[in-house]
Amino acid sequence: MPPVMKDEVIEDAFATAARVTGPNAIEHGSLELVTCNDKPQGRTVVLRARLAETGAPVVVKRHFGPGASDVTTHEIRKSRQIARGLDGPLHRVPTIHQHIPAENAYIAEELRGPTLQSRLLTKNVSREALLDPIEQTGAMLARVHAITPEERREPSLARFTSFAETFAARAARRGADDPGHVLARRLIELLPRCGHLTDGFGLTHGDANPRNVLLLEAGLGLIDFEQAGKRIFSYDLAAFLVRIGMICDPDGTRGPLPEPFVSRFERGYGAAVADDPVVRLRTKLALLQCRDWEMWDMPDEFPEKAQRRARLDRMMRQAADDVEVFG
Question: What is the pLDDT of residues 69-83, one digit of tens each?
Answer without folding.
Answer: 999 999 999 999 999
